[in-house]
């Protein structure tokens, strides 16, 4: 059959549905394996994985531009899902393989390039939105299903089911997914050279200072996404171990905030962009993020987490608004390089953020607070005595709020309308839209625009 967007949709849904099922068992195994340093080890594991993904994504993209998408889809899905059965076999090996799997955990890069190969330019935004919405939907539903099965039948069944779904995804790629890269674009032999310049993960970051507006945007992204990346890696563990949410409540929290985030990035974002403008939408989103992180930092009651979660959904409008201001101000031949800078910075934050949060949790002895919390029965009605007595229950989130405040101050100086001026020689255009997409950005589109739903879906990336 001919390659289609629906092939990409099925691959993404199966992979992340399998991982979403493991949300509850993973939190349990993590605490059992590292009872004294749960948050620190969680940060290190996700930090190593994020840094490896940042370093390897451009190389895998360059290789897939030469050798085709299907083989790299198979490679990324296989190695991303390889740790799943190890959860019950050997938890230590499970977390070790998770860290190392970051080398290949770039399925989205290959998927977006696959979609770019088979769609026309005017169709790509819709196609990327469909892929991202599928990603979000899989992780909105699967944690709740996994929590129910874990409570009813035990964690072993959940791991077996997740492994079976991952194998189904691999078989689907082998049997049903056709190659999307045209035959004429592929070399006659596997020894064909690749563009090592495009495989350099720091290539886009070196161009940040070429334009003052680009520099302001990149600083804004770094200061705001660094705490967000750390939050993604540790927040559900924090809810479970410190706030004492049950497994079912964590799953419900993921689903509710996910749905609200999707609504915020579709309905609310469009209204705000039309009514208050692009820059003010960015500032509003950063304001919501500051409020959300401060609430997480000082909050000691479960209802506070729910309220802050609703605010977190509103803060998800920031990055689509940043992508929009870049797309509007950059020339068509400069869209990719500017978006590549932003995505490169976010990739770097995916490594630094989790490690930083884990270290701050460790520095403020949040693990000790978690141990004290375990002396009290879990409840969703009130917090226990140790948590109420802590002045700052969540120090990393307060640090994150300060970082985003600095980001807000920097964003005030971003001009609403200003042509981005990058030296033409600093960016080498590629010979087709698919290559431009994958080379320029790990998560962006060929036009340099991120799908509107991508940031909301990342909210549930609990691995």
From TrEMBL:
Location in the cell: Membrane
Topology of this chain in the membrane: Multi-pass membrane protein
Protein's UniProt keywords contain Nucleus: no
Transmembrane residue ranges: 5-27, 39-60, 72-87, 93-115, 127-150, 156-177, 214-238, 250-273, 280-298, 304-326, 347-365, 397-414
Xref: PANTHER family: MAJOR FACILITATOR SUPERFAMILY (MFS) PROFILE DOMAIN-CONTAINING PROTEIN, MAJOR FACILITATOR SUPERFAMILY DOMAIN-CONTAINING PROTEIN 10
Superkingdom classification of source: Eukaryota
GO CC list: membrane
Family: Belongs to the major facilitator superfamily.
A Pfam family assignment: MFS_1
SUPFAM superfamilies xref list: MFS general substrate transporter
Name of this protein: Hippocampus abundant transcript 1 protein
Domain Major facilitator superfamily (MFS) profile: 4-418
Organism: Cyprinus carpio
């Amino acid at each position: 059959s001919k390659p289609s967007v629906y092939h990409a949709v099925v691959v993404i849904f199966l992979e992340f549905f399998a991982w979403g099922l493991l949300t509850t068992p993973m939190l349990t195994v993590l605490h059992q394996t590292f009872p004294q340093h749960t948050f620190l080890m969680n940060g290190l594991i996700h930090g190593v994985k994020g840094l490896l993904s940042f370093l390897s994504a451009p190389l895998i993209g360059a290789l897939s531009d030469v050798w085709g998408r299907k083989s790299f889809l198979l490679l990324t899905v296989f190695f991303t899902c390889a740790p799943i059965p190890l959860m019950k076999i050997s938890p230590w090996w499970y977390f070790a393989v998770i860290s190392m799997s970051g080398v290949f955990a770039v399925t989205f890069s290959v998927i977006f390039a696959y979609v770019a190969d088979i769609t026309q330019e005017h169709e790509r935004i819709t196609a990327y939105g469909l892929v991202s919405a599928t990603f979000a939907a899989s992780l909105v539903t699967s944690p709740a299903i996994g929590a129910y099965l874990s409570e009813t039948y035990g964690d072993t069944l959940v791991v077996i089911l997740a492994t079976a779904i991952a194998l189904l995804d691999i078989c689907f790629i082998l049997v049903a997914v056709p190659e999307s890269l045209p035959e004429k674009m592929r070399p006659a032999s596997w020894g064909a050279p690749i563009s090592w310049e495009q495989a350099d993960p720091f290539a886009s970051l070196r161009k940040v200072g070429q334009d003052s507006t680009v520099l302001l945007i990149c600083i804004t992204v770094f200061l705001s996404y660094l705490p967000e990346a750390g939050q993604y890696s540790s927040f559900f563990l924090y809810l479970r171990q410190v706030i004492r949410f049950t497994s079912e409540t964590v799953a419900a929290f993921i689903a509710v905030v996910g749905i609200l985030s999707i609504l915020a990035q579709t309905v609310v974002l469009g209204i705000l962009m039309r009514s208050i403008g692009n820059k003010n939408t960015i500032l509003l989103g950063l304001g919501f993020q500051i409020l959300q992180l401060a609430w997480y930092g000082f909050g000691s009651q479960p209802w506070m987490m729910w309220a802050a979660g609703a605010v977190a959904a509103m803060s998800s409008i920031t990055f689509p608004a940043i992508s929009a201001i870049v797309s509007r101000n950059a020339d068509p031949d400069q869209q990719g390089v500017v978006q590549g800078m932003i995505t490169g910075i976010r990739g770097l934050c995916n490594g630094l953020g989790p490690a930083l949060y884990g270290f701050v949790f460790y520095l403020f002895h949040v693990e000790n607070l978690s141990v004290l919390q375990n002396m009290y029965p879990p409840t969703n009605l009130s917090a226990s005595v140790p948590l109420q007595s802590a002045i700052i229950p969540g120090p990393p989130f307060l640090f994150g709020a300060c970082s985003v405040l600095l980001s807000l101050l920097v964003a005030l100086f971003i001009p609403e309308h200003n042509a981005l001026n990058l030296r033409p020689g600093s960016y080498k255009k590629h010979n087709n839209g698919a290559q431009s997409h994958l080379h320029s950005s790990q998560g962006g589109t060929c036009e340099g625009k991120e799908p509107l739903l991508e940031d909301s879906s990342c909210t549930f990336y609990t691995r």
